[in-house]
Amino acid sequence: MGMNFKNVLALLLILAIIAASAIIGIYGLEIGNVKINPIRESMRLGLDLKGGVFVVLEAETNATGDDLDKIMNQTKEVIERRVNIMGLTEPNIVREGEKRIRVELPGAQNASDAIEAIGKTAQLQFIKPNGEVVITGSQVKNAEVVFEKDRGNIPSVALELNSEGAKAFQEATRELAAATNINDKIIAIVLDNDVISAPAVQNEIPNGKALITGNFTLEEASELAALIRGGALPVNLVEVQTSAIGPTLGIDSLNKSIDAGTIGIILVFLFMLVYYKLPGLIADIALVLYTSIVLWTMVALKATLTLPGIAGLILSIGMAVDANVIIFERIKEELKNGKTLRASVNAGFSRALTTIIDSNITTVIAALVLFQFGSGPIKGFAVTLMIGIFASMFTAVVVTKILLKLFISFDVFRNTKLYGA
């Protein structure tokens, strides 16, 4: 009796954990200060599900090998800084191939504005009338928007220069302030070959603080300050591909995918139940746990769910069942050969294991290759597929086995007909 009581307790505990993980996943949980959001609210959604903008930029450079690698990594860093300054949530910036960078901005509405701000080379130069460059953007320590009180509070950009820049700027302004002709006093402020402001120098500026004035709107001044702060891109970038996906289209895709996934899972559940009876029911319970593990893992890893990612998820559910099918068929064979139920279950699992491990290893290798060489959405597919494979191995092999053994320990579940034999 003691043994059976322990088994009942163990069985109920496992079922309670599985049910809790699914229920919290669907509805969330709030106890006192502890709040867990439902998976649907916690999951980062990719561009194709949330809507937004993506652009593929290609660098115009003849560099190769390590030099190219260095330039591309620098470019990626500058783009990341600029995107973060723009305050967009969950940007995804990845290198694609040798010379391309893919920028995905979920939730961004205006493609052209976002891309313009990202792709500007932002080469800032202060140039004397004789064409000599006094300072460049690399000598600027900080740039921020200020309002000029004496000019009716119009926005300008205040620059703080590093020591090297401050020294050069002081020398240049001393020289230009002494000029008698007004045209010889002008310092042109040039951004990406466009003169954005051409103030005349009145007196020497010794403290490394410069001001870019022009007829800026607040937005223009903010963007200019952000570009200067973000730093200059080491290369010129050309737009190769751009696309904007509306949020309604994204939500529509998400809902359809969830519906398709739900129908797929229900059909798999029914098939297992009808064809494999009790083991099928156990496999279905393990599948609920499997789905929870995959989704919670994605939330924990802050992985981005994309349409191909959902496809990877559904595919790995099929593979999880696949492992169970191999095991249950083995158990049936052992039962037909006259072995006892317990012996059949043990033999079924141990004999099926090598086949399962082999088939899963090949899929993991394929997923790793896709992850290494694929672009954004393909990487998403590879990530969910890999998470799915490891979760399916655990649930199909470990959890199903524990549950089956617990069920077998009760007399009521010992009839071999319940196992499809």
Structural commentary:
With 421 residues, the protein is α+β, with helices and mostly antiparallel strands. The protein has 3 domains: 2-42 and 246-419, Multidrug efflux transporter AcrB transmembrane fold, CATH 1.20.1640; 52-108, Alpha-Beta Plaits, CATH 3.30.70.3400; 124-230, Gyrase A, domain 2. Helices cover 58% and strands 19% of the residues. It has 11 helices and 15 strands. A 4-stranded antiparallel beta sheet has the order 5-6-4-14. It has a 4-stranded antiparallel beta sheet with strand order 8-7-11-12. A 3-stranded antiparallel beta sheet has the order 9-10-13. A hairpin with a 2-residue loop joins strand 1 (29-31) and strand 2. Helix 8 crosses helix 11. The longest helix has 54 residues, at 247-300. The protein starts with a helix and ends in a 13-residue tail after the last helix.
Termini gap: 29 Å
Low-confidence stretches: none
Q: Kindly estimate the percentage of residues that lie in beta strands according to DSSP.
A: 15-25%
The run of helices and strands is HEEHEHEHEEHEEEEHEEEHEHEHHH
> Which CATH top level class of the largest domain fits?
Mainly Alpha
Helical proportion? 55-70%
Separate helix tally: 11
Per the principal axes of the C-alpha atoms, what is the gross shape?
A: elongated
CATH architecture of the largest domain: Up-down Bundle
Structural class: alpha+beta
User: How many individual β-strands?
Assistant: 15
**What would you call the quaternary organization?**
single chain
Per CATH, the superfamily of the largest domain is: Multidrug efflux transporter AcrB transmembrane domain
How many structural units, i.e. domains? 3
Largest sheet: 4 strands, antiparallel
Question: Mean of the pLDDT scores?
Answer: 83
For the CA atoms, what is the radius of gyration?
31 Å
Domain Protein export membrane protein SecD/SecF C-terminal: 238-405
Organism: Thermotalea metallivorans
Main location: membrane
Transmembrane segments: 258-276, 281-301, 307-328, 349-374, 380-404
